[in-house]
Amino acid sequence: MRLNAEQAELVAGLARDWRAAAAVSRPLDREATEAVIWSAYADLETPPPRIAWVDSPREAARLLGELGERAGGVLPRKDQPLGITGWMHPRHVIWIDAALLHQAGFDLGEVDVNLLADIAEPFGVTVYDWYGPPVEGAHGYEADALLRVSVRDAVCSDRSVPAPCEAWTGAMWVGFYDAALRLGLLGPPEDAPGYVRYFGQIADLGRCGAGWWWPRTDVCVVSRRPVSMSVEPEVVYGGQVIQRGDAHRLHRDDGPALVFADGSTYDVRHGKPHAGP
């Protein structure tokens, strides 16, 4: 099965929109960012926090260190639902609770692989085939952007930076699932209303131009995106690849692959954090 002309036009338009949303040059909409964050706090039955804006993840770490207990506790607390704050290092929003979503029919397991490839290509994501856990005996497909993974690995390689929730990097993969949802390939949305809401929140954060965020009970720290980014021209893929994405990994031989407005930099070679010459 392949996309028909009308479906292909829809997917192409969504891909253009999401690629623009994932650009480092995406204008920052602070009001939209703060609205989504406040809605996430409402889901956690927590009063809206003071929002502090910073230029980089390292500046976020410094600010949180200076605030100490005045920032409040890390969200979510053990007695709270996860909401979108549960995805500290999210891979795929629809797989976050795979057993529940599989039962609700909110998955890609029965979708024709050629159709998935048609959707993935304009988004530049890579589609993988998987079997087994977390649903015993299950089979399905998952999509992710290699660029998102390499950005996450670079930022998280700095152990001084607390685990962030994603905003910018969500835009690198969520568009694929946005298209699948609009094409009716993720099962009846009414069977998984909570996940559709969370999906919408993550999608909104991906569009808003912000980088990452660190939710605390009294303060939420939000970082801007980098001011420049360099990626490799080619990627070597492993097994189980259904569709090869062109959203390549971070890479630069002669300088930092990520540069932030405060001067923070990250050296990355072929998607892997690099230290030294």
Molecular structure report:
The protein has 277 residues and is an alpha+beta fold. The chain has one domain (5-273). It contains eight helices and twelve strands. It has helices spanning 5-21, 30-43, 57-67, 98-104, 113-123, 146-156, 174-182, 193-207; strands at residues 50-54, 126-131, 139-144, 165-166, 210-215, 219-224, 228-229, 241-243, 258-259, 265-266, 268-269, 272-273. The strands form four sheets. It has a four-stranded mixed β-sheet, with helices on both faces. A three-stranded antiparallel β-sheet has the order 3-2-8. Helix 1 (5-21) crosses helix 5 (113-123) and helix 5 packs across helix 7 (174-182). The protein starts with a helix and ends with a strand.
